[in-house]
Design a protein that fits this description.
With about 350 residues, the protein is an alpha+beta fold. Helices cover about 40% and strands about 20% of the residues. The chain has eleven helices and ten strands. A hairpin with a 2-residue loop joins strand 7 and strand 8. Helix 2 runs antiparallel to helix 4. It is elongated, with a radius of gyration of 29 Å. Bound molecules: phenylalanine (PHE). The site of phenylalanine (PHE) has 11 residues, from strand 9 and strand 10.
């Protein structure tokens, strides 16, 4: 209550400063005075009237904040009135240069960058390194080394952007080729996440975009089991979505993991208790990522002996997180850069 009131008082102070700066005539000055100091409906009086609702313990602090606002306004108005009485000059002389400057709007990170950073922060705490790689990728790394066979439909020109004149290069269709790059360059043990852009020949609609963002995860070491994957994703999801989140692993298929699992989290809004829930649509579960144990053939393709080492990998879409966690209904909104949308996440 007191915090709210203080925020409102600060808001009133700012709008007063803003209005005062734009005053051009004595009539306007009188109007501003009335609006802020008027006996009945002035902003200060309205605040004072609300003191009654304040819990007794908060009253002194609230009263003080209101009185400070009143003193500030009185002083600034007196200054403005003095300036008005001074020998006539240009309208610019109405400015009181002793007033604090009105604040410039402050920007913030785009929601996609913000989510990416939050995900990175959690995995950094779990001891992961961040590794990034190229968006133009060898077809070999994007598909072949990941055990995606020649005839797999994902290679079809429908889905993949090939580079004209370079039939060994593609715009990566997922961040998984970073698994290959990293394993080829670093002997295990290794533990990375790799955020970045991915591209697919999809027509834009509410849930598809030809360019989107993913975060890949990879851990390879001796004796890595499926339980390590579960524990890691559980730790991540509880930290990111909330401490009471429950995970559900469903059998899935990816050529580069075996076994593979699609992971759902329990709905963080209704926990499955609301059949009309706007987040999970009543199902109680939200699909959030793909994962699995690194396929032995992928390890072999990257010169790692699957008899000695094992690992897990996972990949999640950042746009999907934005839609699930922040209720963004259409991912095209994320690319329009409309400040009315972007300003909502703070
Ligand atoms: N690359 C997969 C995708 O784009 C996700 C994934 C990553 C699945 C790692 C398993 C392991 O859908």
């Amino acid at each position: 209550m007191i915090d709210e009131l203080k925020k409102e008082i600060e808001g009133a102070r700012r709008s007063f400063v803003h209005e005062l700066e734009h005053i051009q005539s004595p009539e306007k000055l009188a109007a501003v005075k009335e609006r802020f100091l008027g006996r009945k409906k002035g902003q200060v009086s309205l605040f004072l009237a609300r003191l009654k609702e304040c819990p007794p313990a908060d009253k002194p602090a609230a009263g003080q904040a209101i009185n400070e606002l009143k003193a500030f306004i009185e002083e600034a108005l007196a200054g403005a009135a003095r300036a008005a009485e001074a020998p006539a000059g240009s309208a610019a002389e109405w400015r009181d240069h002793s007033l604090p400057a009105s604040e410039l709007p402050v920007g913030r990170e785009h929601l996609i960058a913000d989510i990416q950073r939050r995900i990175e922060d959690i995995f950094l705490q779990l001891g992961y390194e961040i590794a990034t790689g190229p968006e133009v990728e060898l077809e070999d790394y994007n598909f072949t080394k990941l055990n995606i066979p020649e005839h797999h439909p994902a290679r079809d020109e429908q889905d993949t952007f090939f580079l004209e004149g370079h039939d060994d290069l593609v715009l990566r269709t997922h961040t998984s080729p970073m698994q290959v790059r990293y394993m080829l360059a670093h002997p295990p043990p290794l533990k990375i996440i790799s955020p970045g852009k991915a591209f697919r020949k999809d027509d834009p609609d509410a849930t598809h975009s030809p360019c989107f963002h993913q975060v890949e995860g990879l851990l390879v070491d001796r004796g890595v089991h499926f339980s390590h994957l579960k524990g890691t994703l559980e730790a991540f999801c509880r930290s990111f979505y909330g401490p009471d989140i429950v995970l559900r692993f469903r059998p899935g298929y990816f050529p580069f993991t075996e076994p593979s699992a699609e992971v759902d989290i329990s709905c963080f809004l209704c926990a499955g208790k609301n059949s009309d829930c706007r987040v999970c649509k009543g199902s109680g579960w939200l699909e959030i990522l793909g994962s699995g144990m690194v396929h032995p053939q992928v390890l072999r393709n990257c010169n790692i002996d699957p008899e000695e080492y094992s690992g897990f990998a996972f990949g999640m879409g950042i746009e999907r997180v934005a839609m699930v966690k922040y209720g963004v209904p259409d991912l095209r909104l994320l690319y329009e850069n409309d400040l009315r949308l972007l300003g909502q996440f703070g």
